[in-house]
Automatic annotation (TrEMBL):
Record CDD domains: EFh (cd00051)
Protein name per its UniProtKB record: EF-hand domain-containing protein
UniProt keyword list: Calcium, Metal-binding, Repeat
Domain of life from the UniProt record: Eukaryota
Amino acid sequence: AKQAADLFKSYLPVVDRPDYDALRDGQLTPAQFREVFGSVKSASGQNSEEALYQADTDGSGSVDFKEFAFWYYCGGFSEDFCLSEDEKKLRVFARALNLNAEEVDRYDRRFKKHDIDGNGSIDFEEFTNLITELTKVPAGQKLDAKRAQALWREADLDGNGQVDFKEFVVFYKKHFENTAGCPFECYYTSIRYVKPAFADYDYY
């Protein structure tokens, strides 16, 4: 509600009166409301006149805060004001892949952790570190070079030598979430060193 309140008050004239409360007493004129509308991008596809008609529920010719807040949140504007530009892009991406916002945020945190230089993509060295962590390669062992290259070719869908966020999510979902009960790390679990039963015996 704070975003709607701040936006509403920012388009009202200053009233120097002790008993004046902008959210209680303030009214946006049609011209002021059109200015507000022009500053936001509607998810509903409305034009300014349609939006004004919808917002002015009592037909008074002006829009009070209660009317404005209802229109603001029902009209699809809250995301534009609550989120940063990067967060908005993530939401668009989430909808494109039929993911919820929580899932995309989780993938984003994982991706950024390994995007060491912060350039928005993961190179082969960063990718190797990522896979080493995700597959829980035992201490003292390295990710098999041929397997690393094979996974890299699979992850780098466009072959440009970088794995961007979308490529990362597709790859991650395939290998680390859709695992039918056996995570990808089983490969490395199976090759962990096992001490031979006869190792403690001295035959010489």
